Amino acid sequence: MMKFSELVQKLGPMAAQNSLSADTQFDPGIVGVAALEQATSGMLSFIEGSRFAKQLKQTQASALILPKQASLQAQAAERGIAWIATSQPRLLFAQAIALFYQPWQPAPEIHPTAVIHPSAQIGQDVFIGPHVVVQAAAKIGNGVCIHPHVVIYPETQIGDRTVLHANCVIHERTQIGADCVIHSGVVIGAEGFGFVPTTEGWFKMQQSGQAILEDKVEVGCNTTVDRPAVGETRIGWGTKIDNLVQIGHGCQIGRNCALAAQVALAGGVQIGNNVVLAGQVGVSNQIKIGDGVIASAKAGIISDVEPKMVVSGYPGIPHKTWLRAAILYSRLPEIYQTLRQLQRLR
Question: What is the pLDDT averaged over residues 299-327?
């Protein structure tokens, strides 16, 4: 347990420079963090905006991270809840979580059931769990953590401090950078879907390329990143990929992108930097998406998208146009009846 004032100090520069001062009238002991509606006495939670004012009236949290809105701050003070205000409540709350919780990190060791080829290179302070397979000429960096039943194919490179969770598979010649996280069930560098139609059926095009993940990439459970016939599939620095995402062969994804669950990219898609694709977005073959684009959930992108656009719907169109179209769609029965009446008057 720590006093709220102590917690604010430990949050560091963001709390000190970008936040308002915490109300010194209340300085409760904080034992953990929780969601607003689940918080109990001794817990820290956060609020992102005025739409959560009702929950603020009901929460049992002892302290809150608030946006810079005087009405919310006054409401918290009236309830005797300690607070600190910032322009980025979610980010500050994420930093607070890290003060109370760190992922389990096993001590360095190589489990006796692991199968490691003699030509594989293993760095220092590495954990290799039970039944891991590391094949020929693989290179494992320093501080890497490889959980049970991971399979690493030949000539793969894994960067320093990267974590490979249980049951993921890293195929031949794949390169994964430093400080990456690969979650359970992920398959990286498997064969892309390459078949050429002939009069005698489908001719298999061998996938001789490789998959490359730059530093600080995270890949969610059961996601697949395919390698191409030639060249590379590349995921840029800092990009975060959710569960159940399909990255087709030869895709190029820029830096600091975010792909939510069930996104699917066909082969050869090029995505710029800082792009956000919401859940179930689908992107057709060879499409180019510019920097800073946002695609809302279930958007179907079948043509190139200019930088900084927000697109929705299928086919993907500018979000404001889609909103107007959605309103009209709900009125189609009424519009149809009006049309029928006008036709009768002719």
Answer: 90
- Look at residues 327, 309, 326 and name the one whose alpha carbon lies nearest to residue 318: 309
Name the β-bridge partners of 91.
Answer: none
Q: How far apart are CA 170 and CA 185, in angstroms?
A: 10
Non-local (6+) Cβ contacts of 133 within 8 A are 114, 115, 150, 151, 152
How many residues are there in the chain?
Answer: 346
Stated pTM of the model: 0.89
Continuous H helices in the chain: 4-10, 13-18, 53-58, 70-78, 89-100, 319-330, 332-345
pLDDT > 70 in the chain, percent: 97
Tell me, what's the pLDDT at 291? 98
Q: Which comes out higher in pLDDT, residue 327 or 86?
A: 86
In tens, the pLDDT along 237-277 reads 999 999 999 999 999 999 999 999 999 999 999 999 999 99
In the beta sheet, which residues pair with residue 127? 109, 145
| Of the candidates 31, 37, 34, the residue with the CA atom closest to the CA atom of residue 57 | 37
Instruction: Supply 268's token pair.
Output: 């050869």
The residue assigned the tokens 């993907």 is 316
How many angstroms separate the Cα of 89 from the Cα of each of 52, 80, 276? 13, 19, 20
- Whole-angstrom Cα distance, residue 217 to residue 300? 25
Contact 299, 293 (CB under 8 A): no
* CA neighbours closer than 13 Å in the CB half-sphere of residue 132: 27
**Per-residue confidence (pLDDT) for residue 17, from 0 to 100:** 59
Catalytic residue chosen out of the listed positions 165, 171, 183, 249: 249
Q: Is 249 a catalytic residue?
A: yes
Answer yes or no: are the C-beta atoms of 33 and 97 closer than 8 Å.
Answer: yes
